[in-house]
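Human:
Care to share another protein and its fold?

Assistant:
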Amino acid sequence: MSLRRICVHIDDTATSAARLRFSGLLARHHDASLAGIYVPHRPGAVHSGQRESSGDHYRTEGRAQTALHAAEHLFQEVCAEHDIAGDWHAPFGAPTTILSTFAKSTDLCIVGQPDSPGGVAALGVDGIGDIVVSAGVPVLGLPHNVTLPQEIRRIVIAWNGSREARRAIGDAWQLLGRAQDIFVVGINRSPAGDDPSLTDIVHLLEKHGLRAKPVSIRQDTEASDGVQLLAVTEEYEADLLVMGAYGHGPTRELVFGGATRTVLKHMSTPVLLSH
């Protein structure tokens, strides 16, 4: 499936502008439209058990309106710069609920790294997890405090033979198709040897004309799986890490394993999550 419509979460964090510019560039590369989702801060009428004075309330509301207008102006500027179609949305509500709803009508949802500095609107790990599970589309998390890639040319795929890992490959297909190098990384836990499914999935990618290489690493008892994945991603100078995510339960809350939480909290490379 092609990337024809992308949505990006725009917030008041220090890295939101870089996230928006990356999203605009990605939309241009894939001839996609871009939906900007900004959830305004609604000043509370009650603070610390006491109602805000009218002066404090209007000052807070004024700052919120200024931030909203600045974000919309930057969004329109990015769309014009990359000559892409864009639509702007700024509804009130819970960010995870709003993003999950909008993401359902897109091919990819782009968010910032959990707990990004500089604002109150950053999504937490569980918030991103809820979007991954409920939206039904891949979620691309972008790190803060790094220079984002201009193009996604080198991709690392985290492979463990699971349904989620296979689904992640399918959801990343349009990005994989443009990559120059793909490294499928499996963490070997068996004394009997490498997981044969690692070779099998690489052969499948090769049959589709993709340049993929298997990378089997031994499980390190001194380092978590997440730390090992981050190290491999850095070693291969990847522009993107693709990995599956896990969820269960009637509320569809995402139960991230330790590896996924570690990657999200400490990533220095964009991470595509799929459920």
